[in-house]
């Protein structure tokens, strides 16, 4: 496992719910990241964010890590859940709330 | 160089021949699209895998020359 992969490995496990995004929770730098933050905030989720704009290695590495070409990326319990479209679908169906609440109780 | 909607649909259909692909140009700038892809290939697959199939069909353009593609995937038989 190379350095970037092991670094990303520890980042995705920093908290049960981790969002890799462009910008910060308060100042998202992209509409898709902003949408992802809005969804998690609406759910009242306790989550950590990683600003990929601050780290080119992570920005590129995370795409290979999950085999997913875009940011944002949501991880729950170290598992890749999806990008903002999947988050929105799961939010609308109630699945995301279940997933996040299960973590809060764990 | 932005991508044309037809080009996106053709790439997806090349990888998923049965797919019904609907592309919308969200901003009218040839750079922000929404795609709905309906294919039997998605049956029994988690959403992440379904989207990965479509991204793979786009062959690395996603996140590069194709900046924004809102993606929705579905299986034809799920009540539509």
Quick synopsis:
Chain A is of the alpha+beta class. Chain A is built from 5 helices and 4 strands.
As an assembly, this protein is heterodimer
CATH architectural grouping of chain B: 2-Layer Sandwich
Q: What coarse outline of chain B follows from CA principal-axis ratios? A: globular
Could you give me the name of the CATH homologous superfamily of chain A?
Answer: Glutaredoxin
Proportion in β-strands of chain B: 25-35%
Helix share, percent of chain A:
40-55%
- Number-wise, the strands of chain B total 3
* Uncertain segments of chain A: none
> Largest sheet of chain A, order of strands side by side?
2-1-3-4
Instruction: State the end-to-end CA separation of chain B.
Output: 35 Å
Average the pLDDT over all residues of chain A and give the rounded result: 94
- Cα radius of gyration of chain B in angstroms: 12 Å
CATH fold-level assignment of chain B: GMP Synthetase, Chain A, domain 3
The level-1 CATH class of chain B: Alpha Beta
CATH class of chain A: Alpha Beta
What radius of gyration of chain A results from the CA coordinates? 13 Å
Tally of structural domains of chain A: 1
* Widest sheet, order of strands of chain B: 1-2-3
Largest interface: A-B, 15 and 13 residues
Give the strand content of chain A. 15-25%
């Amino acid at each position: 496992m190379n350095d970037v992969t092991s670094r990303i490995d520890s980042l995705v496990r920093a908290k049960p719910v981790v969002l890799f995004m462009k910008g910060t929770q308060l100042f998202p730098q992209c509409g898709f990241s902003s949408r992802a933050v809005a969804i998690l905030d609406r759910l009242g989720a306790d989550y950590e964010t990683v600003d990929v704009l601050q780290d080119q290695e992570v920005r590129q590495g995370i795409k290979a890590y999950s085999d997913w070409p875009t940011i944002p990326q949501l991880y729950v319990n170290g598992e890749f859940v999806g990008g903002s479209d999947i988050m929105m679908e799961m939010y609308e169906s109630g699945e995301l709330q279940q997933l996040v609440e299960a973590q809060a109780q764990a | 160089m932005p991508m044309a909607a037809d080009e996106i649909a053709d790439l997806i259909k090349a990888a998923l021949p049965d797919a019904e692909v609907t592309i919308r140009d969200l901003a009218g700038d040839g750079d922000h699209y929404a795609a709905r892809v309906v294919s039997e290939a998605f049956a029994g697959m988690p959403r992440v895998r379904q989207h990965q199939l479509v991204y793979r069909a786009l062959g690395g353009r996603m996140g590069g020359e194709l900046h924004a593609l809102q993606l929705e995937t579905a299986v034809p038989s799920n009540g539509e």
